[in-house]
Design goal:
Strand content: 15-25%
Order of helices and strands: EHEHHEHEEHEHEHEHEEHHEEEH
Number of helices: 11
Number of strands: 13
Helix content: 25-40%
Low-confidence stretches: none
Mean pLDDT: 96
Shape: globular
């Protein structure tokens, strides 16, 4: 067959650029283009998308919502914005969750997960699904990201000559406990209440470390049961690895940029000596499994290609 026609709508942003760079290395794709003038016209953009076999929407939420109603139903869409992650009729693009991989193979509307949300959902959703963590649980999560997660403006701010010395230190944000990833964190895990979530941006380029403390006594569960459940759930998955209970750290440390440049995600199951408390940690690249890598993985499945093709493991 001929080449797949692919369009990246919004290829000037961080995620769009990384997707475009990945696709440029692969011979099975023909990349559709649009002029700068036409890109300002939603109908012109929709026309290009409707010519494609698959298109990525790397747009602000409102722009993604604006163009979708103009698209043919059979054109495969991967939306990297927040706009459709909990919308009816859209598949949440985390293939490793039960039933999702098969659904992606025939899907035409797929929402690429948020980066912080991926780090929370990957360890928590299986435990809720299996009934180990109750849906009524109130969880907390802290997620550390490199500054590339803030897009081109933040990257430029961090990489310019430092005037703002606040950039030298980690900076928690979303301090009013209101973040755009919260709806998907609750909806996809099945929790009745979104977690108490604090994201933190720090002075390094890429990498994400999402930390979820569990009070095992209050939940009435054991650390070995949690670790065994996650190990079994993700057994054989090419892009997610679960470390054995209390193993895998670097002498008790875990650098948030350890998997920068990779498209994989690793889960650490760490407990205190008497196993009354536990911390689940997701480690990955916010630009990899947290955005463009996840989008490419979904694209491969949607087009019937080898799932890990073009991904760094």
């Amino acid at each position: 067959m001929g080449k797949y026609k692919i369009f990246v709508d919004g290829s000037s942003g961080t995620t769009g650029l990384r997707i475009a760079d990945r696709l440029a290395e692969r011979e099975e794709f023909e990349i559709l283009k649009i002029s700068a003038a036409d890109h300002k016209d939603v109908h012109a953009r929709a026309a290009v998308i409707n010519e494609s076999d698959l298109s990525f929407l790397c747009l602000p939420d409102d722009a993604a919502r604006e163009v979708v109603p103009l698209l043919r139903e059979d054109v495969r869409i991967l939306d990297t914005s927040t706009a459709h992650r909990t919308a009816p009729g859209w598949i949440y693009g985390l293939p490793e969750l039960h039933s999702t991989r098969e659904a992606l193979k025939t899907a035409t509307r797929v929402a690429v997960p948020g980066c912080h949300a991926t780090g929370f959902i990957a360890p928590v959703a299986p435990l809720v699904e299996l009934g180990i963590i109750p849906k009524t649980a109130h969880l907390s999560v802290t997620s550390l990201t490199g500054y590339s997660g803030g897009g081109k403006k933040m990257i430029a701010e961090y990489e310019a000559e430092r005037v703002n010395t606040a950039l030298n230190a980690p900076r928690p944000y979303g301090l009013a406990l209101h973040h755009k990833h919260l709806p998907e964190m609750a909806a996809i895990t099945g929790l009745a209440t979104a977690p108490n979530f604090v994201p933190v941006v720090a002075d390094y380029y890429a990498g994400m470390e999402t930390m979820i403390p569990l009070d095992l006594t209050a939940l009435g569960i054991s650390a070995p049961k949690v670790a065994a459940a996650l190990t079994e759930y993700y057994a054989g998955q090419p892009m997610i690895k679960v470390h054995p209970l209390c193993e895998g750290t670097d002498g008790g440390f875990l650098a948030a940029n350890k998997l920068a440049g990779k498209d994989t995600l690793e889960i650490f199951c760490l407990a205190n000596p008497d196993e009354t408390q536990m911390q689940l940690i997701s480690l990955f690249d916010n630009l990899g499994k947290g955005s463009s890598g996840a989008a490419v993985q979904c694209m491969n499945l949607m087009l019937g290609l080898e799932e890990t093709k073009g991904l760094a493991r």
